[in-house]
């Protein structure tokens, strides 16, 4: 099972087993990782599962779709070039070792 | 095939739906409701699966019992709710562009101010009806203001919503009564979906601007979705919230301790009470679920409320707990048809419950709560309370 690490704004981190096919948002909720609110339950409507992806791994993720693109303009913490919505990122074997930084604020 | 003879639209069931929901979940992943010749799903996995597979479980044949391919709907179908791709996506994109979290945030201060004002008045009164004076009063002020409706005529919004939500059920006495009561409202609603009757800068006017690729008639239908979907649902959620807190004083104490929990608390109210209880879908192909083959063209009743209390998904599902992570419930639906106004509803719930939590120590029942029966919604007709 691929391992994914969520890093909190204060630098503490947790590495969890990510089930292939679940989204990186669902994986965070499954493991009770703080900092992912995911109010809309994964429908790209709330921008509260915002994450910053390690830049060298951006290419391992699928491209932004138009819904995600628009929603990223609504994040509570500033959008960066590495910003993604974790609800739109399905876990694949290729993502093993992925590090996601969580923003200061989601709401 | 697992069959049940229950009538989910019977008065007694609508007044207290929880026992039927339990029976449905326990009966199996897919159940045949013989009374209406429809399938039913009530477990979280199957309900979510159906909601997120709109190609198999379509909406354009109507999301009520009536099959639009065989019967003429009582009103022109909604371009959002009662539509499938690609038409649905076009309409949905237009409306989401007007209801983004960023836009919703611009209403925060105004809503919070109105919430403070209303709560201050109610605290002074001490005793009031938490439905009429609280749960209806707040959305009926802030929401039509935001949409850009005139102050006059707003009393038509609730009877209209009652028609819409009873219209998804069978032609029972609730449907007939709602249609009679709402007859006058229909014209007012139609009139106030038109651009010339909507205040500039409001959400209604913005829909007309964003929907320039649509005909004038279609633009009005998009605005109609706001008026149909945005009032009764929120009203019921807020009324249910007060009943929850009057019934679970420990949860009220937990909220009072940290009023900033009000957003999560509102989320739990929606999971626990599911103001929108059910929606239908129609199969577009033969599909196998839980060992049962559902043929193409059949109606499937999805019990959102039952899914939100499925113990397979939620620990202590029947416990109202504002500290739980309620995200992932289907009280606002899920997938392409997920409630487009959900961020608005959350804002209303959050600011109003926070205002109440800052001012009110205890909430007690001052009389028997009376349910408001509806073929789709779960909520109250009246809820006498005393606050201190």
Automatic annotation (TrEMBL), chain A:
Keyword Metal-binding: yes
Any one GO cellular component localisation term in the record: cytosol
Family that this chain belongs to: Belongs to the adrenodoxin/putidaredoxin family.
Keywords, sorted A to Z: 2Fe-2S, Iron, Iron-sulfur, Metal-binding
Residues in 2Fe-2S ferredoxin-type domain copies: 2-106
Listed InterPro entries: 2Fe-2S_ferredoxin-like_sf, 2Fe-2S_ferredoxin-type, Adrenodoxin-like, Beta-grasp_dom_sf
Molecular function terms, GO-annotated: 2 iron, 2 sulfur cluster binding; electron transfer activity; metal ion binding
A single BP term in Gene Ontology: P450-containing electron transport chain
Pfam families reported for this sequence: Fer2
Protein name (record): 2Fe-2S iron-sulfur cluster-binding protein
Cofactor(s) in the UniProt record: [2Fe-2S] cluster
Signal sequence segment: none
The keyword Iron belongs to this UniProt entry's keyword annotation: yes
TrEMBL record, chain B:
Database matches in SUPFAM superfamilies: Cytochrome P450 (SSF48264)
InterPro entries in the cross-refs: Cyt_P450 (IPR001128), Cyt_P450_B (IPR002397), Cyt_P450_CS (IPR017972), Cyt_P450_sf (IPR036396)
Alphabetic keyword roster: Heme, Iron, Metal-binding, Monooxygenase, Oxidoreductase
Pfam family membership, one: p450
GO molecular function: heme binding; iron ion binding; monooxygenase activity; oxidoreductase activity, acting on paired donors, with incorporation or reduction of molecular oxygen
Family: Belongs to the cytochrome P450 family.
Annotated protein name in UniProt: Cytochrome P450
Organism per entry: Amycolatopsis carbonis
Lineage, top ranks: Bacteria, Bacillati, Actinomycetota, Actinomycetes, Pseudonocardiales
């Amino acid at each position: 099972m691929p391992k994914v690490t969520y890093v909190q704004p204060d630098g503490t981190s947790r590495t969890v087993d990510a089930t292939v096919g679940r989204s990186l948002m669902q994986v965070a909720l499954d493991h009770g990782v703080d900092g992912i609110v995911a109010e809309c339950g994964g429908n790209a409507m709330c921008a509260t599962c915002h994450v910053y992806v390690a830049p060298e791994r951006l290419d391992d993720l699928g491209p932004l779709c138009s819904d995600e693109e628009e929603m990223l303009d609504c994040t509570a913490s500033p959008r960066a070039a590495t910003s993604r919505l974790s609800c739109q990122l399905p876990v694949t074997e290729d993502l093993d070792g992925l590090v996601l930084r969580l923003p200061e604020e989601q709401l | 095939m697992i069959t049940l003879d229950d009538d989910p639209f019977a008065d007694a069931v609508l007044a207290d739906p929880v026992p039927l929901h339990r029976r449905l979940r326990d009966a199996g992943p897919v159940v045949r409701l013989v009374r209406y010749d429809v399938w039913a799903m009530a477990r979280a996995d199957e309900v979510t699966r159906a909601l997120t597979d709109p190609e198999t479980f379509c909406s354009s044949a109507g999301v009520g019992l009536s099959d639009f391919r065989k019967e003429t709907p009582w009103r022109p179908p909604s371009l959002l709710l009662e539509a499938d791709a690609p038409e649905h996506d076009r309409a949905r994109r237009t409306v989401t562009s007007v209801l983004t979290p960023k836009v919703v945030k611009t209403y925060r201060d105004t809503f919070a101010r109105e919430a403070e004002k209303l709560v201050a008045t109610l605290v002074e009164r001490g005793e009031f009806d938490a439905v009429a004076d609280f749960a209806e009063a707040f959305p009926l002020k802030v929401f039509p203001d935001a949409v850009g409706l005139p102050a006059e005529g707003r009393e038509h919004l609730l009877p209209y919503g009652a028609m819409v939500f009873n219209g998804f059920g069978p032609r029972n006495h609730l449907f007939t009564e709602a249609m009679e009561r709402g007859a006058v409202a229909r014209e007012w609603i139609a009139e106030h979906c038109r651009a010339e009757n909507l205040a500039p800068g409001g959400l209604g006017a913005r829909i007309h601007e964003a929907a320039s690729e649509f005909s004038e008639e279609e633009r009005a239908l998009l605005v109609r979705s706001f008026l149909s979907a945005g009032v009764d649902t929120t009203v019921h959620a807020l009324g249910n919230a007060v009943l929850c807190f009057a019934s679970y004083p420990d949860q009220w104490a937990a909220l009072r301790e940290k009023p900033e929990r009000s957003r999560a608390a509102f989320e739990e109210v929606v999971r626990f009470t599911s103001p929108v209880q059910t929606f239908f879908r129609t199969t577009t192909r033969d599909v196998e679920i839980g060992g049962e083959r559902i043929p193409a063209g059949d109606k499937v009743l999805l019990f959102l409320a039952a899914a939100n209390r499925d113990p397979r998904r939620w620990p202590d599902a029947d416990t109202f707990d504002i500290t739980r992570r309620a995200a992932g419930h289907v009280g606002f639906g899920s997938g392409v048809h997920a409630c487009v106004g959900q961020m608005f509803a959350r804002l209303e719930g959050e600011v109003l419950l926070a205002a109440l939590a800052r001012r009110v120590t205890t909430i007690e029942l001052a009389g028997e709560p009376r349910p408001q029966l509806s073929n789709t919604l779960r909520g109250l007709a009246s809820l006498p309370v005393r606050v201190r």
